[in-house]
Design goal:
- The longest helix is centred in the middle third of the chain and has 47 residues.
- This protein has 3 domains: about 120 residues, Adenine-n6-DNA-methyltransferase TaqI, Chain A, domain 2 (Alpha-Beta Complex), CATH 3.90.220.20; about 100 residues; about 150 residues, Adenine-n6-DNA-methyltransferase TaqI, Chain A, domain 2, CATH 3.90.220.20.
- Helices cover about 35% and strands about 20% of the residues.
- The strands form 7 sheets. Strands 11-20-16-18-13 form a 5-stranded mixed beta sheet.
């Protein structure tokens, strides 16, 4: 089947014409709002979407908004309701010669960013927009033209709705699983009397905290001895790991503070209370270097059991009383040693780990598959959008 068969069927033998946007009954202007206020009744649209709120309502109808300047130059949105528009945004208003949503889909499809000029501060002007050619089906028959545009919009709206529904469904499924996971984790760490002793994490029978060394990002090498920088604990690692993302030289490793297999590596610094003390259990065979702003917890417990404990509300509640700092939040190793951890029999620790590992695997799997599934759906949507907005090339007349 020809890629143009659907459009050709809609045209039903009729012609289409490429018309400059400036020749259509379209009004192009610039937004005026220069305020950065976040208070007010009405949203202010800018290059990235809603950027603030104002009490100054200027528009109360559907308009196409195009980012005029900056990294987002060429980004296309449709604004609805009552709102104002910032001065870094171009406004495209329809005057009944074309369906606004049809124009919106076409402008999104051709990627207006390609028309932006300037390297440091890309810019799109109204003049450039006016020169862009828009395919108008049946230009001499407005009723049929609008009918074809309406059908294309209907199909693309359905694709958009299906893609949104799928994303919402998958995200809801993931959030429900995370909630269930959290519930069972809290239950598994709630012990009846006599099942577990509550001991200080710094108790000599339990473990000790060792501060990380002077490892910095500039010390990374392509190969060598594995290392964990505290910042990677937030961005790269989950509950446990057996391979490192980065390495240091053997010479550097000799003087570095290292974690051995079974130890926890804990980020003791963060920009927020929730992330501070995020921990990863190191399960690799070799010792690894650990940066400052992190500490090593060497202990006699099941490594995964301790790592899962760090995620519980029981740990978080105790941690909060020891957080210091204003912009940068910290918990030092001496205070971590005061936190009480339930210590059941090794067999009980292993059973808890077995259950939570299953949740961890399932959650990680969905976490990884969700972006891929959404990306595939988006590519499928973009393919059909391009198909619906690609009109057959006219055959050149022979003399």
């Amino acid at each position: 089947m020809s890629q143009f068969s659907f459009v050709e069927k809609l045209l039903d033998g009729a012609e289409f014409e490429l018309i400059d946007l400036g020749e259509l009954s379209i009004k192009i202007s610039s937004g005026k709002n220069k305020k950065k206020s976040t208070d007010g009744l009405y949203p202010v649209f800018g290059s990235t979407g809603i950027i603030g709120r104002t009490n100054n309502k200027v528009y109360d109808k559907d308009l196409i908004l195009i980012a005029r300047v900056g990294a987002n130059a060429g980004r296309v949105n449709i604004a609805q309701g009552e709102y104002d528009v910032s001065d870094n945004t171009l406004i495209v208003e329809n005057k009944n010669s074309i369906i606004l949503k049809y124009l919106y889909y076409y402008l999104v499809n051709i990627n207006l960013n390609q028309y932006a000029q300037g390297a440091g501060q890309p810019l799109i002007t109204a003049r450039q927009l006016k020169s862009i050619q828009i395919p108008i089906p049946c230009p001499d028959n407005s009723e049929k033209s609008l009918a074809i545009q309406t059908e294309i919009v209907r199909i693309l709206d359905n694709f958009t709705e299906l893609t949104t529904e799928l994303t919402t469904e998958l995200t809801t499924e993931l959030n429900a699983l995370k909630k269930q996971y959290k519930y069972y984790r809290e239950q598994l760490f709630s012990f009846e009397d006599g099942i577990a002793d509550y001991l200080s994490m710094g108790d000599e029978e339990v473990g000790k905290f060792i501060r990380g060394g002077g490892l910095q990002k500039k010390d990374f090498t392509k190969t060598g001895i594995g290392c964990i920088h505290y910042g990677q604990i937030y961005t790269h690692y989950s509950t446990y790991a057996s391979e490192t993302k980065t390495f240091v030289s053997e010479e550097f490793a000799k003087k570095a503070r290292k974690a051995k297999s079974g130890d926890l590596v804990i980020a003791t610094t963060s920009e927020n209370d929730e992330d501070v003390c995020k921990a990863v259990a190191w399960l690799g065979e070799a010792d690894i270097a650990v940066s400052s702003d992190a500490c090593i917890y060497t202990h006699s417990l099941n490594p995964k059991y301790v790592a899962y404990f760090f995620q519980t509300e029981l740990f978080q509640k105790q941690k909060r009383q020891y957080i210091t700092g204003i912009k940068v939040r910290r918990v030092n190793a001496d205070n971590l040693a005061k936190i009480l951890i339930p210590v059941p029999a090794p067999e009980k620790q292993a059973k808890i780990v077995e259950i939570l590992d299953k949740f961890e695997t399932l959650t990680t799997s969905i976490n990884e598959s969700l972006p891929r599934e959404i990306e595939l759906r988006q590519k499928q949507y973009e393919y059909y959008r391009n198909l619906l907005l690609s009109f057959p090339k006219k055959e050149q007349e022979t003399v």
